[in-house]
Amino acid sequence: MVLELEDDALPASLTAVREPTKTLTVNLVDLSKWVLVLVSAGCVTDILTTFIPWGYMGNLQWFLPLSIPIGWPAIFMDPSIQIWTIAIVLKLAILSVLGSLLFYKYSKNALFQLALLASIALSFAGFGVAFAHGMILSFGFYVVVISCFLKITGLALNYLEIEIVP
Q: In a 3-state reduction of DSSP, which class is residue 143?
């Protein structure tokens, strides 16, 4: 037995299919244009770690080896293996973030992301060694934290889009 219905008597689910669909206007906010700005700011803060003190004792500000002190009396930290590790790792982080900026400008492929990840890892390594060393930390330590945050945010914005639906 087959039940036939008139066109007016169709169930609600079938009439909804026949109605034209409404089109939604969607606005996409592309945040990838901020990647270069944030990674460049991270690069500047990495470079800034070369010029500012990393520790203090009393009224004396202590600088890492291979630093260029500006504005403070030049007193360098005792060259232990941890101090040299921090100094060298941070210089490598500067070089890798500069390389990532060049890759972003000229190739925009996975090499940019790889170099930026290497720079983030090296900055975190310098941060970790300084934290584990138990130094009385000064400006340089906090600038590395800011640098890591800027570079991670820049890398995340490369993949992030915001969709605004009215």
A: helix
The tokens describing 106, both together, are 């000229």
pTM, rounded to two decimals = 0.74
Instruction: Specify the pairing of strand 27-30 against strand 55-57.
Output: unpaired
Q: Which has more confidence, 109 or 19? A: 109
The Cα–Cα gap between 38 and 157 comes to 9
Residue of 83, 87, 98 whose CA lies nearest to 50? 87
Q: How far apart are CA 92 and CA 55, in angstroms?
A: 20
Angstrom distance (rounded) from CA 146 to CA 14: 58
pLDDT surpasses 80 at 32 = no
63/72 Cα distance (integer angstroms): 9
pLDDT on residue 111: 85
- Residues 34-85 have pLDDT tens digits of 888 888 999 999 999 888 887 777 777 777 888 887 776 777 777 788 888 8
φ, ψ at 113 (rounded to 5°):
-65, -40
User: What span, in angstroms and rounded, lies between the C-alpha atoms of 120 and 101?
Assistant: 13
Q: Which residues contact 106 (CB under 8 A, 6 or more apart)?
A: none
Strand partners, 137: 55
- Cα distance between residue 140 and residue 21, in whole Å: 58
